[in-house]
Each structure stands twice: as structure tokens, then as C-alpha cells.
Design a protein that fits this description.
The protein is mainly beta. The protein has a single domain, classed as Neuraminidase. Helices cover about 5% and strands about 45% of the residues. The protein contains two helices and 24 strands. The strands form five sheets. Strands 2, 3, 4, 22, 23 and 24 form a six-stranded antiparallel β-sheet that branches.
Length: about 325
Amino acid sequence: MRRILIVLLLAILLLPAPNKNKPELFGPGPLLVTARALPLSSTDPALRRIGRLTYLGGWQLRSPHHGFGGISSLLAEPDGQILALSDSGTLMGFHIGPGAPARHPFIAPLPVRPRDRDKPWWAWDSESLTHDPATDRYWVGFELQQMICRYAPGFARVEACRTWPEIEAWPETGSIESLARLPDGRFLAIAEMGMTADGSHDTLLFAGDPAEGGTAAPLHLRYVPPRGYRPTDAVALDARRLLVLNRRLTVQDLFTATLAIVELPENPRPGDRLKARTLARLAPPLLADNFEGLAVTREGDRRIVWIASDDNHEFFQRNLLLKFALD
């Protein structure tokens, strides 16, 4: 019975609604983050290999700053510089691993447009983040508001925001969990709970910037995750392939996650299915939690995968950051 109650509580926490434990708005400032190294498996500390992933390190992250945590998406650089975004519109920049940080650690709220400043703090349920390294611009997907916004380099200001009827049709409590920018300038958004008639997840392929008013209506595709899982983040590997992070919550295992790969058709058509192929699964006794953030970097010839968890600002969950090499 106790385990069932825990699952019910966690399920409620996953709903992007006002939450007493989410931090209210605060100003920008420095951030102190401590990282405790963890083995991948609690029963076999020497285990390094799962599926097509090789474990390079994992950390439990803590900070005395009350705004730290709730990581829903992230970006990473090869030197271990991390930019994380919480589900309450908070940016967190810090460094992990060896070497000196390239920038000072910081925590700051996302900038908002003047006309949006009267919206309640809990309405900024930022669940997805992507970046164009060529222009240094960022895009954020917001649940509740069903909106995608573009930000200037360094998150200096909001440049544009747009809502789409295709996204407004998704449940407010499970929409833009995944937003990926392809190298050719297209964008792909996957609904966590916006479903098609056959039980797939509605997926929108934008030909251009989804925050711009002149971008044409997106193409509807269908994402088919591993059985029983829902997508929580996605990142492009190249113009055709994407990694997708998927989450499941059950009474038996609590949180588990899968990392999967999908391939876009060369010439996508409405209704095309994007069937996930599982690369690895994270479940007890391996490190497992509410994994929502996914990023990819390169170290030489190796492609590096970073996975982060959202602790929902609850004492019984953890902020985990895992680092893998992808074969």
C-alpha cells in the first residue's frame, strides 16, 4: 500500500500545476552546486555497460539555493559546462567533472516579455529547450501556456513567441515535453500526452522557426515509444536521426527510463510513424529517477549522452546527472 501511495503522489507531481514546493520567482545570482559521484548499479559497482551506452560517470547534484532543481531539459558542452532549465522557468549554469569551469555558476529566471509580467510565477512551466550553435539562439517549449519562445544569445531577451492550434489541442498537462532543432533548421516537437487515434504520440515537424509568425503549419507525424513509456525529451543526432528519452512510472519499479533512437523519413508525409528503437534502459538496481533532460556532445570521435532527472523539488527525489558514451 505504501508503494502505491508513493506512485500516486509522484503521478500528481508530474502534472504541471501550481506546486507549493516549486520556488517562487527570484533574481539572478551565483550558484553553488555540489556533485556526489555515484556508481551506475547499486548491486554491481563495476558495471559500466548497458545496451549501447558506456557509463562515464554519474552525480547527485545539490545546492543550498532554494531555486535549484526541477531539471526538465538541459544543454551540455564537451568540457562539462551544463545549462539546465527547470520546470518553473529557471536557468541553472554550472560545471561538472574535471577541469576548471569556463563560466561562473549562476541561477536566473528566464526573461519575459513586458506583456507577460503579470502572469503568475507558476505558469512558466518550461519543459523543453533547444539551441542553434550558429546563432547562439535558444528555444523553450512551455506547457500550460502551450507556447514556444525564442531567446536572444545569452538569454538576453525574448525575441518571439508563438502558440499553435496544433499544440493547443494537446493536454496542457502533457504537451511540449520534447523540442529538438535539426541541423537543417527544421524543428520537431513531440507531445507527451497528445495522442493520435492509434495511440501514438502526436509529433509536429516544423519547416522553420516555430516561434516566428511566418512559419508554415507543421506536418503531423506519429511517435511510437517503447511499450508503456512516454517521451520526455529529444535531441537531434543529425538531419535524420533523433535520440528520445522516455519515462515510465509503475508500482513495481517506480521510475524507469529508456533511451531510444528514431529516424525521420527522407521525405516525411503526414501520418508517418517514427518507431523508437531502444538503445538502453535505466531501471533498478541501476540509477533510476524521473529522467526528463537529454543532451548530446562530442569528445573526439565519441558521441556523449547526458541524462538529467527532475526532483520535483521533493526531498525523496534526486537531481541526477548521468554521462554516457554512445556506440
